[in-house]
Structures are given as C-alpha cells and as structure tokens.
Amino acid sequence: MRRLFGGKTPALTADLQQRIRRSFEESAADEEHFPSTIDPRILHVRVILQTFGDLAGKRVLDAGCGKGRFARVLLGEHPAARIHAMDIAMAMLRFVEAPLMPCAGSLTALPYATGAFDALYATESLEHAVDISGAVAELCRVVKPGGRIVIIDKNKDHWGRLETPEWERWFGQKELEGLLRRHCGKVESRPISYWEDVDPDGLFLVWLAER
Ligand SMILES: C[S@@+](CC[C@H](N)C(=O)[O-])C[C@H]1O[C@@H](n2cnc3c(N)ncnc32)[C@H](O)[C@@H]1O
C-alpha cells in the first residue's frame, strides 16, 4: 500500500479509536492547551469567515470542534446560521451550548446525511483522524455541491516542532490537496499565520475546497 503521509500509518482499529477518544476526554480539562475561546482577529478564524461569506439560514459543520471556540465566533458573526459542532469527545462537547448543535461522532463516519451542509470546516482535527483519506471522503460527502470546505492543520515539513501523540499526522500541502481533489472541483492551499502583521512560518496550512 502506498503511504500518503510518510512514516508508519497505523490502522484505525477500534482500540486505537478508543484510546484517541479517551485521550481527548482527559484533555478537555486542560484549558491552556485546549482552549474554549479564540481571539476573532486570528487569521484561522478570519479565513473561515471570509471563505463562507453570508451564512444566514445556512447549515455549517465544525468537524472535530473541540470546545466549540470557532463555532461560537461564527455564530456571533452570523446569528441566523445553523451551526452544528461534532467531536469524538463528550467532555469537549459539554462546552458547546445551544443554539450551537453539538453531536458526538467520528470524522471517519460522520453522523450526517450526504449533502447536509452548505459549508464545513475542520481546524486541527483531521490530523487526529488516522484514516485520513476516509475522513476527507466523509467531510466532502456531507457538503452540498458548490459548498465550501476549509481545513486548517499542520504542515508535514515542520514535523517534530511540537510534541505529538503517536497517531497524529501532519500533511504535505500537495498531499491533502490531492485527497480533496478526489471529491472537489476547486482546491487550493497556502501557509497561514495567526496574525495579519506576521508572515506565516509554515507550521500551519489552510486548504480551501469547493465541493
Ligand atoms: C486539537 S483539538 C482542536 C479542536 C477545535 N477544532 C479547535 O480548534 O479548538 C482536536 C479535536 O479533534 C477531536 N477529534 C480527534 N479525533 C477525532 C475524530 N476521529 N472524530 C472527531 N473528532 C476528533 C478531539 O476530540 C479534539 O477535540
């Protein structure tokens, strides 16, 4: 089997999925590393807002939402949007309150109908999915034709800069573009920094796709 992401790719067994879930159940108590808020000026938030445009009446999915920090900002900007927030860890979802719509599930088997969403984003969650091509297929499946997808994750070229659990994978720009192209017509990607006045250092990449 050809390995897309280099290194040893573990199989997504039920046991591994369970360990990942348990790890994030525990991580929810760690507010420093898994914060429940985000500064809305951060470019990771702005790129999602700019890509989606007006969300009034639209259905949006935050896939791997953690404590819902991005979803709360989106809702603040677009109160008439219907924002669903999905995560594998219940302890994370306890932070996600109405009118956001929390749901437990996995990126590799999304609990939503095909074409359910107008827009979808995943920030620093796909890197934990293990079955990356399966998760990308699922993310694309639940978005309507013409819907927008934003993925923000870390760059494989910077692997080693941070401590990572054994299942985590970072992506090459072209590798994830290739997976998205299997399902989406328009795909682009670029490095992204946190702040407008700071050049990207290459650690984070954003992928933008149109279903
Ligand atoms: C680093 S946190 C990022 C959370 C959120 N996107 C944010 O930026 O604040 C990664 C999140 O992905 C979730 N996660 C990991 N594997 C997942 C999977 N297979 N399906 C759904 N969520 C998953 C974790 O529970 C955790 O909340």
SSE blueprint:
Elements: H1 14-27, H2 43-52, E1 59-63, H3 69-77, E2 82-87, H4 90-93, E3 101-104, E4 117-123, H5 132-141, E5 143-154, H6 173-181, E6 186-191, E7 204-210
Parallel strand pairs: 1-2, 1-4, 2-3, 4-5
Antiparallel strand pairs: 5-7, 6-7
The chain binds S-adenosylmethionine.
Descriptive key words:
211 residues, alpha/beta, Rossmann fold, seven-stranded mixed β-sheet, 27% helix, globular, binds S-adenosylmethionine
Report on this structure.
The chain has 211 residues and is of the alpha/beta class. It has one domain (14-210): Vaccinia Virus protein VP39 (Rossmann fold, 3-Layer(aba) Sandwich), CATH 3.40.50.150. It is built from six helices and seven strands, in the order H-H-E-H-E-H-E-E-H-E-H-E-E. A seven-stranded mixed β-sheet has the order 3-2-1-4-5-7-6, with helices on both faces. The longest helix is centred in the first third of the chain and has 14 residues, at 14-27. The chain is globular, with a radius of gyration of 16 Å. It binds S-adenosylmethionine. Residues 20, 24, 34, 64-66, 69-70, 87-89, 92, 106-108, 123-125, 128-129 line the site of S-adenosylmethionine. Residues 20, 24, 34, 64-66, 69-70, 87-89, 92, 106-108, 123-125, 128-129 line the site of S-adenosylmethionine (SAM).
